[in-house]
Amino acid sequence: MHSVHLAVLMTSHNRRTRTLSALAALHAQRGLPAHATLGVHLVDAGSTDGTPEAVRLLHPSVEVMSVGADTPRNQALRIASRNSRSGGGGGGSHRARPGGPSHRWTHQLWLDDGVELFPDALTTLLGTADAVGGGAVVVGAVRAPDGTTVYSGRRGRSLALVEPGGERPEPCDTYDGRVVLLSRAAHDLVGDPDKVFRHRMGDYDHGCRARRAGVPVFVAPSPVGLCAEGPDAPGSLEPGIGVREALRRVTSVRELPPRQWWVYCLRHTWPWAPLLMVSPYARTAARATIGRWRA
């Protein structure tokens, strides 16, 4: 494994316990070469539960920036990426504290603060990156407590979840943005998540843009972490809600806001974009209507 200078990008908002657990698991990584460096860039979106203060106290090597509570996750990730570029992104041993950035990073790692990495996660991701070539994106699959895969790469027009292959990396078309390793070369070609996507879809769009730019994308052979709370709340899929409430939820910033969804469809699904644009809203209305009838 070559010299590794890893810039870890994280965001947080009022999830102090989860954020601290994610950082503890990150700093407990094993198997990395002695010369590997790690710099963590956390952007906190207006937490009122003491998250920034707790991180500074328990993980003083982490760079913490506080922004407004109205800053969406995708934008916070862009800010963290900008911070990693302005500061270098490395920083001494991955267990060093404190450790300011001192190296130009070779990789970025998107890490959701709801994911606790397994102890060998970084070794798995970096080893996969070496195996598939330096210009690739490597996605880490994340499991729920019951062992099912809840976040991973995605494949096909239906965005089917890609299970880890067990022995070799699995190719995919795009990805959930919970655990994603970008080589420097891949980032130079694809850039950061697009600012047009405020909360969701930014990771899917990023993966599609990577593929279009000729950047190969693979899922690491084994899962890399645990999402203690499983997937997001059901939102518009919640049984028993009415059509109006279901449509309100599905068009909210946390699901498929129409303007952003149209941009995604236009970029990546033409000539089927008009049909795909309306289909999730029609399915949501139909599902809620049938659910009410059955109830």
Automatic annotation (TrEMBL):
Annotated region described as Disordered, given as residue ranges: 79-104
Keywords, comma-separated and alphabetical: Glycosyltransferase, Transferase
Pathway(s) served: Cell wall biogenesis; cell wall polysaccharide biosynthesis
Top-level division of the source organism's lineage: Bacteria
Xref: InterPro entries: Nucleotide-diphossugar_trans (IPR029044)
UniProt-listed PANTHER family: GALACTOFURANOSYLTRANSFERASE GLFT2, RHAMNOSYLTRANSFERASE WBBL
Family in the record: Belongs to the glycosyltransferase 2 family.
Entry protein name: Glycosyltransferase family 2 protein
UniProt organism field: Streptomyces cavourensis
